[in-house]
Amino acid sequence: MKIIFTGRGVKVTKGIRAKVQEMMSKHKKLLRKVNKIDVELKHSKPHRGIDTDIKLEITVTMPRALIRVEEKGSDLYTIVDGIDPILRRRLIRYHDHEKKLEGKESWRTLENKKFEKEIENIKEDDYVGASDVKPVITRYKEYSKNSPMYPAEAIERMELLGHEAFLFKNIENGKYAMVYKKSDGTYGLVEPKES
């Protein structure tokens, strides 16, 4: 398995390479279909008195899915140890839904009535932000492949990426929609209302 290491403000030492490769070899069975593994080390500025100055981000490219995990800290070896169980959980989750992700099974699921009521109750937010706050976009991504998917598939992809929200094209109605993770662990779906 090929692992590509990148360091931004942090030197990637032989020791850390060996530690990451050792961790990946423990998950050899779960990584049997891997296309590529990117390991990125970044130096980040500590803020609010928190002693976190190194960020480790691992992106595993599997067929039809990306799995991303990240961890911050001051000791690289501790960070790798902390990221190991998170990576394992996401790899297991990928394999639990592998047939669906590869298009061999349907993502169609029965919708929960409570979930449908939550969607109906979403109203426009009338919040007006402070005039001195200027939002800054720090990351821009553009995807060329945008195949429609079911909301359940979008939730799985969001979880595999470790994100809190995921934009997708809903296969059921052809609209762009967003799934998001709520603070209580459940999920929400936002779709544009037809006027």
Lay out the secondary structure.
Blueprint: E1 3-8, H1 14-26, E2 36-43, E3 54-62, E4 65-73, H2 76-96, H3 98-101, H4 113-120, H5 151-161, E5 165-169, E6 176-181, E7 187-190
Parallel strand pairs: 1-2
Antiparallel strand pairs: 2-3, 3-4, 5-6, 6-7
Helix pairs in contact: 1-2
Name a few traits of the molecule.
2 domains; single chain; SHC Adaptor Protein; Double Stranded RNA Binding Domain; alpha+beta; 7 strands; 24% strand; 195 residues; globular; 5 helices; four-stranded mixed beta sheet; three-stranded antiparallel beta sheet; 29% helix
CATH class of the largest domain: Alpha Beta
How many structural units, i.e. domains?
A: 2
Distance between the termini: 51 Å
Please state the overall shape, judged from the principal axes of the Cα atoms. Answer: globular
**Helical proportion?**
25-40%
What is the CATH topology descriptor of the largest domain?
Answer: Double Stranded RNA Binding Domain
CATH architecture of the largest domain: 2-Layer Sandwich
Structural class label = alpha+beta
Number of strands: 7
- Which blocks of ≥5 consecutive residues have pLDDT under 50? 110-116, 122-133
How much of the sequence lies in strands comes to 15-25%
